[in-house]
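Exercise 7. Predict the structure of LysR substrate-binding domain-containing protein from Dongia sedimenti.
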Amino acid sequence: MRDMIKDYVRGDLPSLSSLLAVVAAGERGGFTAAAQALGVTQSAVSREIRQIEQRLGCALFRRSPRGVELTPEGKQFLESAQEGLQIIGEAVARVRAQDAPRQLTIGADFAFSAHWLVPRLPKFTALEPQVDVRIITAQHVERAIADCDIAIVFGAGAWPGIEVKRLNQESVFPVCAPNYPTGPADGKPDWLTEANLLRLIDTADGSDWFDWPGYFAAAGVAVPERIRGQGYGNYPLVLQSALAGQGIALSWSPSIDALLESGQLKRAHNFTARSTRGYFLARPQNAGPNPMVEAFERWVLAEFGA
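Solution. The predicted structure, encoded as tokens:
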């Protein structure tokens, strides 16, 4: 058996960061995409690949104004690097499964955690009683996926370096307390333009999910110059205000389904706005096998009927 330590000391073996740069650039077809996937700068990826090419004495990529492509030597090296990293990843996963505590960390946004995940969690823990579950709440994808084994996130479903499985399609409609006064439930919801509307204050301004102007536009209703009502910094506060009878809020299914089924909230109008966004199961693409994650995925997909 070759002494790999001596090979590395002599400079015959590349560093792990160089291998990852080659694999990321080869799989994604460019240094910019590789840098985004690895969370580093493009110049750092270029430097790592230049160093490994110097060690090998040959070019792995052809560079042109249109981008980069693998050379024949680069294709051969990429296949071997992928195989080697896969073996290492599987070895790490096996050791973790044997020795690490059976702890599963799940990321999700505030409302989904409170009104969908937590009420149903006993069903999962009954199936997997040996798993110690932790839930981390965050409103945005990057925060929800960070330091988590798996997350349930909302958005368009395309995030660099993240593998996703769709759970549903964004479906939004107005809700309020059962005794809150409303207009007709059918037809155009134009009476809502004069109602007290509860809204989420966020820098996304409706680009990541429906806001009231987006809902009105989808319903074919002219957006009022001024929307009356209170704004809140997170969605659970919006729902709490609606539950307290203070106004009408937009709701996302399935986050509020339990509140509708229990009669704590009612639909204020029957029009439902839809988009191509939705909830997704998400985990890093480079994550190795994890039986706890796979068990949670199966359970969530079954709960959604997917």
